Amino acid sequence: MMILLALVILGVLIIIASVLSSLLSLYFEIKYWRGRRRAGELINGNYPWVTVIMPVRGLDQNIKGNIASVLDQDYPGRRNYIFVLDSDDDPAYGIIKDLIKGFNVDASVLINRGGRSKGEALAFALSHVDGEIVVFVDSDALVHRHWLRNLVSSLVKGSGAATTYRFYVPLRRLSLGSLLRASFNMIGITAMQNPVARFTWGGSTAIWKWILDKWRIRDYLPYYLSDDYVITHFVHREGLAIDFVPESLVLTLEDVSIKEAFTWSVRQLWYVRVYGFRGFLLYAASYTLYVVTLPIAIALSFINAWFIVPGLLPFIFGVVKDYIRISGIKALDRFYGINITRGYSTLLALISILNVYFSWLAIIKTMFTKSINWRGREFTVMDAIRLMKERPLE
Ligand SMILES: Nc1nc2c(ncn2[C@@H]2O[C@H](COP(=O)(O)OP(=O)(O)O)[C@@H](O)[C@H]2O)c(=O)[nH]1
Ligand SMILES: [Mg+2]
């Protein structure tokens, strides 16, 4: 009897914790979109010289559209582009060469022959930079015409780095896999909204060249599978702020199966596990809380049917939170309003319920994952740790 009572109390406490934490997330979401100041343009219009670096390996589903969007920028200052591949046999090589011809821009395609990772490619490109500001961008990012201008404006106004994040949108057909990945991915936006958790997302970040030089960031990049981790570390060391610029969110137009979405999610979590273990534990704990809430509420509903209500609340709050977030994004620019349809917004918000279980399974799988496959390259935990130990961050 005593044991049963203790279990009921524990169950009630877990449900309360889950309801409160989801309510708090909803509150922060509303507060974020209400309190945000729009990233404005520069007053005096003095835009520095920017070098945009895109590492490329293989063919992204929307590669032509993505690269064209990055080249087609409305940027008032001087800019040049560096594409960096590991081989001129890469199928993307010819595509990039062709695309460049169509735009009147200063762009070069470098080959980091024998390169073994994105980090090595970035380090190689950094030795060819002339601009005052460097902007990194991934080949799966579709951007709008003011993407570059927004990021640079943030730096000129005083931040050390300006970052943004990605939002997944289906390319040809909507599928459960694409929805789950898009929902999973939104946890990154939560991190960006919070200055403590914020990081320089490698898929689209602007940073002062002098910071890269001063801390010799180029020498560290080849030793880490996460450029985000290295650059975030040194911007903090410099004591400068990392600004989050939602107005420059990038869209990734891709279709994936559930299996691909799961493998992708595990790889993302794997980096967190390897390079930010405390964050990984926090993440695991909070998802475990949400995952056990409903089963506990169902068990307690045998005592009193009303228990099911607080058991469902966290999921309802989660759906509302995501809907508010997506609406906030849609309102940022016509680009988002057009590409993110109302039907997709609703489905994506609803899928957050399934995503609780999907994310949790991915977390569990990540705990036991020794190696990942990233664009056809195999990396093991041992490799990652050995490399990191060769060049620890100062
Ligand atoms: N040159 C080069 N680029 C790479 C390599 N691996 C990934 N990339 C590029 O790095 C960027 C990020 O890769 P992606 O697979 O999208 O990583 P994700 O953001 O974790 O999904 C993309 O622009 C890729 O084309 C590599 O080994 N060499
Ligand atoms: Mg990517």
From TrEMBL:
Keywords: Glycosyltransferase, Membrane, Transferase, Transmembrane, Transmembrane helix. Residues 51-166 form the Glycosyltransferase 2-like domain. It holds the Pfam family Glycos_transf_2. It is a multi-pass membrane protein. GO terms for molecular function: ceramide glucosyltransferase activity. SUPFAM superfamilies: Nucleotide-diphospho-sugar transferases. The keyword Repeat does not apply. InterPro entries: Ceramide_glucosylTrfase, Glyco_trans_2-like, Nucleotide-diphossugar_trans. It comes from the Archaea. Pathway: Sphingolipid metabolism; Lipid metabolism; sphingolipid metabolism. The chain crosses the membrane at residues 6-28, 280-300, 306-324, 344-364. It is found in: Membrane. GO terms for biological process: glucosylceramide biosynthetic process. Its main location: membrane. GO terms for cellular component: membrane. The keyword Oxidoreductase does not apply. PANTHER family: CERAMIDE GLUCOSYLTRANSFERASE (PTHR12726:SF0). This is Glycosyl transferase family 2. The lineage of its organism: Archaea, Thermoproteota, Thermoprotei, Thermoproteales, Thermoproteaceae.
